[in-house]
Amino acid sequence: MHNLIEFLAKYNHWFLFILLEVASFVLLFQYNSYQGSVYFSTANVVAGKVYEWNSAVETFFSLTKVNQELTHRNVYLEHQVKQLSDELVAATKDSLSLKRVQLSMLSNYRLMPAKVVDNSVDRRDNLLTIDKGEADGVRKDMGVVCGTGVVGIVYLVSRHYSVVIPVLSSQSNISCAIQGRGYFGYLHWPGGASDRAFVDDIPRHAHFKLYDDVVTSGYSSVFPPGVHVGKILHVYNSRDGLSYRLEVKLSTDFGNLRDVCVIDDATMKERIELMRAAQDSLKPKTE
């Protein structure tokens, strides 16, 4: 307390000067219209700039959340557009029945936004890590997508993180179909460019053309039908000459992958258990 009083006594003339300056400016701007208008104009400009900077800072720090929401929304809309397109094509058959089927299919899926925290594209067997795990409802064998297409399949899960086998891995094997054509095969990545992959086992009698879209077939328990994979760039014969091999330009930019969604299919567990039971029943019994 003594030091505070000593400090105020030592610099009292400065405090008196500041007080008089403030009082003079108040009187100047309050009782003179011109100076008052200049003050308010300047104050409004300064306040506007401060609010603008504040808004810019808040917008910057909210971009991550906005990007996640947009990714989530894009995946949902892409799937919905595919379902509606199929419904339009088949409208002459039984549009009401088809609509009920498509809506019931959509109700089985829940999309869980996640962020990629580790990724690689230059290895034979690439892996990526996301910041969602068991605590968030992620399980092994769930599909992972982004706003532009397929990413991969969950391989390992911990409490708060998951490792995903992406399309850019020799272990990846995703069932795909040529959109609107009905022919399906399996997506493989032999290495090399991160924006190219191949769809094998397309039958020789299949009719399609270059730049047709390739989408997930929906024949597995991992991905719903219609998730975008890429576009056909080239067509080759298989090694045995019995099928086609399609070179596909992938729609997912794996080198710039940040936000993804994990697909939670409510019926996946039941289908996997049923398939395993069927496989077990077909195994030869030992006496």
From TrEMBL:
Residues 116-263 form the Rod shape-determining protein MreC beta-barrel core domain. It comes from the Bacteria. The keyword Membrane applies. One of its GO terms (biological process) is regulation of cell shape. The chain crosses the membrane at residues 12-31. Keywords: Cell shape, Membrane, Transmembrane, Transmembrane helix. It holds the Pfam family MreC. InterPro entries: Cell/Rod_1 (IPR042177), Cell/Rod_MreC_2 (IPR042175), MreC (IPR007221), MreC_beta-barrel_core (IPR055342). One of its GO terms (cellular component) is plasma membrane. Belongs to the MreC family. This is Cell shape-determining protein MreC. It comes from Segatella buccae ATCC 33574.
